[in-house]
Design a protein that fits this description.
The protein is of the alpha+beta class and 95 residues long. 16% of the residues lie in helices and 16% in strands. The protein has a three-stranded mixed sheet, with no helix packed on it. It is rod-shaped and about 90 Å long. The N and C termini lie far apart (75 Å).
């Protein structure tokens, strides 16, 4: 019986312990959900724009052929896709 009495304080302390939460949920960005998606669309660089289904790209977006005049207004949520003379994506950026 004395063996079991020694366990009582240990069990009492264990019952008072605060359980630790499981691994925190990591928020991963989802394409098209808020903000600019330039970082997630970096894989487009080097691809021919005619081979990309642009309808699947998130809005707002702006595809900029070479020599095209664009407004200078900055929109943090807009993704800009800049093309070269061969219609290849050379740059993807926010603004």
């Amino acid at each position: 019986m004395k063996k079991y009495l020694a366990l009582v304080p240990i069990l009492a302390l264990a019952a008072c312990a605060t359980p630790q939460p499981a691994d925190p949920v990591i928020d991963r960005p989802v394409l098209g959900e808020g903000g600019c998606d330039a970082e997630m669309l970096g894989y487009l660089v080097g691809q021919d724009i005619n081979e990309i289904d642009v309808a699947t790209l998130p809005q707002p977006r702006r595809i900029i052929p070479p020599g095209t005049a664009v407004t200078m207004d900055y929109r943090a949520d807009r993704t800009n896709i800049e093309l070269d003379e061969d219609d290849r994506v050379v740059r993807v950026y926010c603004g």
